[in-house]
Amino acid sequence: MTRVLAITAGSHSVGIALFDGEDELAAETLDVDPGDASDALRAFLERLPAQPEAVGHRLVHGGGLVAVPTEIDDTLADALSEVADLAPQHDPPALALLAAARKALPDVPHYVCPDTRFHAGLPPAAAMLPLPAEWRERWGLHRYGFHGLSYAWATRRASSLLGVPSPNLVIAHLGGGGSVCAVAGGRSVDTTMGMTPLDGIPMSKRSGAVDPGLLLWLLDGRLSLDELSEGLQKRSGLLGMSGGLSADTRELVKTAEPAAAAALDAYAHAVRRAIGAMAMSLPHLDGLVFTGEIGWDQPEVRAAVCAELAILGIHPVGEDAVDQDGLISHDGVPVLVVETNEERQIGIEVSAARSGPG
User: Fold this and answer.
1) Are residues 179 and 80 part of one domain?
2) Rounded to whole angstroms, how far apart are CA atoms 299 and 158?
3) Which of 120, 140, 228, 281 to pair with 155, CA 20 to 30 A apart?
4) Do 200 and 304 share a domain, yes or no?
């Protein structure tokens, strides 16, 4: 395998790791806005134990420009900047960090790894949006789905843990952003996010799906487009439902305020509803997988979600913390927890892209 430096720019942090085959040589998580991470990235590069042969970058949304891991050049970088408004919290800072990395490491190839790749084979019935055909054709409107790097890794780990080569899973990626995915035979067949990462379940600060009639009503002289966008992207989700108390489930769990409990109840309800919907896209259910920062280290949220999923054969789970991937319920449908490792998935995908189809 190629020695790959993997960079994942999330909406609130940046993950960096160097892999040589299966071995992780160095890794760091930067709890900074990706747009402010260039200096930290340069400092990390100075400490590398070995130089990378390639660099892989998480790209949340490439529009119709990038479907698979692709080596980037100036022309593609410029084109991606033109569609960055499809993921305004993710793509602009990620592309800025990509430019900084290309400047710091000019002699190695850089690849963008789209988060949409895992969902590229969605069945037409799941991918189609109920919009006028001329809109869909003119702007390429369809369900893209996101968190694909996380889902690909979680599917790989769940398959190994369950001993099922091509499992049928519902995977809940719960973090600052969040979505739920149906995986049939190891492939994505449905997911809650649509054309953009603003769709689906409520998130830390993003709204998720909202009645479009409500949005039209707000835009009819009540809010400007900028005000609506800012509210949906930065002041909604858990933050909005808790009345501004916090966007962090860890803080909300510790808070005795009724608004915190109400926000957590609404969040768990929305995740359960999404899990049920995704399960309907599967022939049967081999397991429910929690991943993402909340899914991994917030046992109270996992317990709240699983408390009322008996209709799917999922039994309640405890509130015990985990320190490694594994099953947390063997009764009924297995429930698993998998730590997100998007950096390692990038290493796998870039190595595969460099080795070619053979």
Assistant:
1) no
2) 18
3) 140
4) yes
Same domain, 218 and 297: yes
Q: Are residues 209 and 70 in the same domain?
A: no
Please say if 33 is a catalytic residue.
Answer: no
Cβ burial of 228 (10 Å; 0-12, 13-18, 19+) is: middle
Domain with 308 in it: what CATH number? Answer: 3.30.420.40
The pLDDT tens digits for 107-165 are: 999 999 999 999 999 999 999 999 999 999 999 999 999 999 999 999 999 999 999 99
pLDDT the model gives residue 38: 83
Classify residue 237: in a domain, yes or no. Answer: yes
pLDDT of residue 193: 98
Give the confidence band of 13 by pLDDT, cuts at 50, 70, 90: confident
Average pLDDT, the chain: 94
Say if residue 259's pLDDT is above 90: yes
Q: Is residue 140 a part of any domain in this protein?
A: no
Does a structural domain hold residue 252? yes
**Residue among 115, 190, 199, 325 flagged as catalytic:** 115
What is the gyration radius of the CA atoms in the chain, in angstroms? 20
And the tokens for 14? 């940046």
Say yes or no: 229 and 330 in one domain. Answer: yes
Asked whether the predicted pLDDT for residue 232 surpasses 60, the reply is yes
Residues 322 and 181 placed together within one structural domain of the fold: yes
Confidence of residue 358 (pLDDT cuts 50, 70, 90): very low
Task: Give the residue numbers spanning the domain of 197.
Answer: 162-337
